[in-house]
Every structure is written in structure tokens, then in C-alpha cells.
Amino acid sequence: MFNWLLAPAAYLYKLGVTFRHHLFDWGIIKSEKFDVPVVCIGNITVGGTGKTPMAEMVVGYMTRTHHVALISRGYGRRTKGYREVRPDSHYRDVGDEPLQIKLKFPDVVVAVCEKRAEGIRRLLAEHPETDLVVMDDGFQHRYVEPKVNIVMIDATRPVQHDKMLPQGTLRDLPEMLHRAHYFVVTKCPEKMAPIDRRILSKVLVQVAYQKVYFTRFESFMPQPLYADEAGSEGVALHRRVIALSGIGNPKPFLESLRERYDVVAELTLDDHHIYRVKDMKQLAALLGQYPDAAVVTTEKDAVKLTNRDKIPEAVRRALYYVPINISFTEDSATDLLQKLEQDVRGN
Burial level of 267, CB count in 10 A (0-12/13-18/19+)? Predict the structure, then answer.
């Protein structure tokens, strides 16, 4: 209601971001270019736009022909500097999303460093076989000059109607979208009208070579996080469910659960939430209230709930997560990935 009170702060933030871009444009702050191609997957807004599922798709495809490594800031971790992610790393040391990617691709080098250029330099020094770096986030930072920029856009929050932080969700200037090579619009409705596609494409495309892909998240059947303790019934359609999430934009996750299940309670937490004893007690209390319910969470949250000793037995037995991937609604994912392969090879 009082969003307009934030307008002065948003104006000052925009001035600061604009000046910073000018420093890069004038060459006062340098962007570093590497001999190894860097594919940046980023966005210009805060909150979940699907960068991690997109990074997983690119890594999964490119590992067939390349020695791929992934670099990330490792948002929310309690450590500083360069750190290589191991399958047994704690999410508070490396970040939840890098750990999720490492668990899916244990043979891929995954590292975190808040200074991406410094991180890439060390990564290449320690792993000289690397011939492709995927940078998860970093589009707005500009200290690294990627060979390819993939920018994720949330269809539920069109950039043309958004405002700068803290009044809106924009953390970078829409004018900077000219630096993108590909746009991947996520969370599109299943039956997106052609006119809506054309309007959004016209807003995004500022340079002739840019291409827009429209996608939505595809959810799979919930999987038990503790398979050895889970009940045999699984999460059947219309079963009672307690929804648990700590992600940037939980709305699509919650909506998909409501379509399939009887959601009797929702525990919605901040993005990159650190789970504590009080959260487990709250879940246990909800299960006491709904003893036949399943606790269903996101894939991102699941990597933070793997410490068996700190999770009550009743919660472990009821705990499931929903795997997701990106489903392309028109052009196939292969079209994007093959073009990306050509870009990486220098064509």
C-alpha cells in the first residue's frame, strides 16, 4: 500500500547502478576475459527465476563434449573466498544451490567465490583440463566478460512493469538487457497467448541476434528424502500435504501442490533459509495435528535437510521433495543447447 514511500530509495539505487555501469563502459573498472569460454546464466531481478535448473541443463548437456566447471557466488554461506564444493560439503559452507548441482553432477568441478574473476582464475589453475566454465549468476557484476550471456526472465514479473529495488524486484537496469545473447522466460502459463509472447519478445529483444525461449517448470512426483524410512504409500494424488519452502518465489511451487494435493498447512520461509531446531519442532507439531500428511518441499530445500540426526523421526518418515526441470513450450531445449555449443566453439 505504501510502496511509493520506497521510491526515493529506488531512485538512489538506480543512480548507483547506472554510475557503476558507466565505470565499466568507460574502462575505469575492467572486465576480465578468459581464454576458456564462460557461459553466464543470470538475471536482473531478485528472487527465483530458474537459474539453477538452467545451469543444470547446460552442465548436463555440455559434459558430453567438454570438461565443464561451474563457478557460483555461493549465496548465503558462512565462509568467504574460494572454496571447492564436495558431495559431503555442508550447505552453510558452500551455499545450497552449488551443493545441489554438485550432488547431481559429482564428477563436475563446482566452486564458489564471491569474486567470480578471482574464482575462475584459481579454478583454471587447479583444474587446467577445464575447457568450459558455467557461471551461475553474475550478469550484473561485469567483472567477468562471458562469451555467452543467458538471462532468465520471470513471466509472472514482467520487467516492463517492475521497479528498481527496494520498490520492486529489479537489481539491474532493463537497458542492460542488450548484453544478453539468449533470454529464457520461465514460469509461463501452459497456454500462453501468442500476443503475450510477441509483447514480451518486443520488450526483451534489443539486438538482432538475441533469441527468446519460453518455458515453464515441470514438476515430477515427490521423492522421499529418506527412502529407508519413508512409508510405502508415497504421496498419492489428493493426499494431505504440508508445504515447506525457503525459495525466492514460492508461488508456482505452492500452486502446483494445490493442484494435486490437499494442502493443509504451509510453512513458507525466506530464500536461502537456514533450517534450525525450531523449524523442525514446528514441522513435528504440524504432523501431530495432521498425522496422515506428507511434508513436501523443494529440491533446493532438500539439500539443507539431509542431516538425519537433527531431524525428528516423524519428520524424516514424512519428508519428500519435488524434482523439477525446465520444459520448453515452443522451441525445443535442444535448439538452445545446440546454438550454445556453436557459440562455445566460436562459430
Answer: middle
Which own/partner contact pairs does 9-13 have at CB distance under 8 Å and 24+ positions apart?
Answer: 9/166, 9/167, 10/163, 10/164, 10/165, 10/166, 10/167, 10/168, 11/164, 13/164, 13/165, 13/166
| pTM of the predicted structure, to 2 decimals | 0.92
13, three cell numbers:
539505487
Top pLDDT among 243 and 46 is at 243
Region class of 116: left (phi > 0), else alpha (psi between -120 and 50), else beta: alpha
> In angstroms, rounded to a whole number, what is the distance separating the alpha carbons of residues 72 and 95?
9
147 is in which domain, residue-wise?
32-218+327-344
CATH number of domain containing 42: 3.40.50.300
Whether the Cβ atoms of residue 170 and residue 164 lie closer than 8 Å to each other? yes
pLDDT digits 0-9 by tens, 30-87? 999 999 999 999 999 987 788 999 999 999 999 999 999 999 999 889 999 999 999 9
- Collapsing DSSP states into helix, strand and coil, what is residue 214? strand
Q: Which residues contact 162 (CB under 8 A, 6 or more apart)?
A: 45, 168, 169, 170, 174
For residues 185 and 212, the answer to whether their CB atoms sit within 8 Å is yes
Report the pLDDT value the prediction gives residue 248, as an integer from 0 to 100. Answer: 83
CA 148 to CA 340: how far, in whole Å? 8
For residue 310, report the phi and psi dihedrals to the nearest 5 degrees: -100, 5
The verdict on 301 and 245 lying in the same domain is yes
Mean per-residue pLDDT, 304-315: 92
Q: What is the mean pLDDT of the chain?
A: 93
One-letter amino acid for residue 236 of the chain: A
Here the CATH number for the domain that contains residue 263 is 3.40.50
The answer on 291 and 272 residing in a single domain is yes
Is the separation of the CB atoms in 147 and 31 below 8 Å?
A: no
Half-sphere exposure (Cβ direction) of 150: Cα atoms closer than 13 Å: 27
